[in-house]
Write the structure tokens for this entry.
Amino acid sequence: MRWLLDEMLPRALAQQLTALDHDAVSVHDVELAGAADNDVFDLAVLQERLIVTENFADFARLLDERQHSGAPCVPVVFVLTWRSIWTSGHATIRTPTSVHIGRSVREMDRGTR
């Protein structure tokens, strides 16, 4: 699986996914940190990468616009990070995002949920 991690996710997460035999890069590694979300989406489409982001508002809108216009799309995975949990006031998840993503990746490889 090919991943493109948005800027709010740590670079180290891309390294963790790579260690699990996935092709993962961070927008920081491809000089797109701070770039427009549409530019991030364009790169993901060009490189056929799944986008991982906590930016639901902007990427859900982009995905919807692209799907309705017939423009090329890639899957987008929306995650909660510690930052989004604490700022939303929902501190119920007790393990880091990277653990959940790593576990999910292994489960997808095995064909389980």
In short: The radius of gyration is 14 Å. Residues 2 and 47 are 8 Å apart (CA to CA). The mean pLDDT is 80. The chain is about 50% helix and 15% strand.
